[in-house]
Amino acid sequence: MRLWLIPTSYTAASVAAATVVPRLEQAWAPGLIHGMSAASATAFLSATASGMLAMTAIVFSIAFVMVQFSAVAYSPRLVLWFASRPGLYHALGVFMATFAYAMAAMMWTDRSGSGSAPLISTLLVIALLIASMLAFVLLVQSLSGLQITEVLCLIGDRGRDVLAAPSSVYRAPSRLKDRCAGPPVADLGPPVRTLLHEGSPRSITELDVRTLVERAEAADLVFVLACGVGDTLVEESPILHVHARGGQATDFDERAVRAAVRLGRERTFDQDPKWALRLLVDIAIKALSPAINDPTTAVQALDQIDDLLRRMARLDLESVWVGGADGAPRLFIPLPSWNDMLALSFDEIRQFGATSVQVMRRLRAALVGLQDVATAPERRDAVDGYLDHLDQNIRKSVLDTQDRITARQIDLQGLGLTRSPKPPGPGTARPKARPSAREGPSGA
Q1: CB 88 within 8 A of CB 63
Q2: Residues 10-20: pLDDT tens digits?
């Protein structure tokens, strides 16, 4: 549902009720009035209507603050997310409905010089006024969602929802029944046709896997996607390649195939856990900029990144084949590899946080934890490579010798609770113990 329809629906319902209810009230219960004088009722309804206009202005002010704060403090890519919260539009709809019905009730007050005001309409205005106050209180309370911890948790939850969705392709093979083994794409030969993007740049937001497989199976074809969810398509970018199993291409519903690759102006969370990682990294590196200098926010972002990567470590990433009803491969979907996920999650944070002892310690804790949960040897080797790269960054940083030793410690809090052995301080006769591979070297 489009968000602008929410306040429009409230207003339309209020206008309809204002048209029908007073007439029914006058026709069926003309004697049902209250003791308030017409002048008092008019003053009350007038104050309610004018107050709702002021309340609406406050709502717009809150929306502006939310947009501005999210753009400056977190990331400009989160602006639309905050400004598109349905609660904001529901509150706006209640205010507009109260204003419209209060104006209509005033029209029926002291009608034809009766000197009275309709009881039911007045009670409805009071009920709408109470609802408006509650909506405003809830809206103000929702501002707590702008706290950095809440924002990071919300982004992390969206990424976890994508990984756990029943239709997600980011799942273990045993839980994705239509995933199948297929030949290398290079063995398919040249495509018989390629669908190209036409129009302005658009990002792939979602894939309708079922439709793509059904269309390929109906025409006895094989579709090989040339792009993945999150990619941006420009003019004449290839969308998918069409391969004929029998050597001859058959007709297929091109419009349905194009519609199955859903496009948008920007990336979304629908099928893209990488977008959650991207936003978390953006927040982390913005916090590490010299203008802000907030490494604790970067550590909190790493908490969410660490959790998402631990879940991905148990999944079968890489590219996948999806089979049709007969089990034959019909659709090839390119997916990021484990190395792609590590690079997205850690490279920029490591570069921008090279001078922060707190960030280096939390990075090491995340990598050591991934060594424990990554079951495939090649994935553990990739994590080992990142640990070596982290040590190189520390050695080449501007930190002094003691800070380099501290930066190589494992600490989930960044600075707070060291997990690896603490090197002895100066003047101690106890020799330094050789750290394990996970703890990293103990010297500069």
Answers
A1: yes
A2: 999 998 988 88
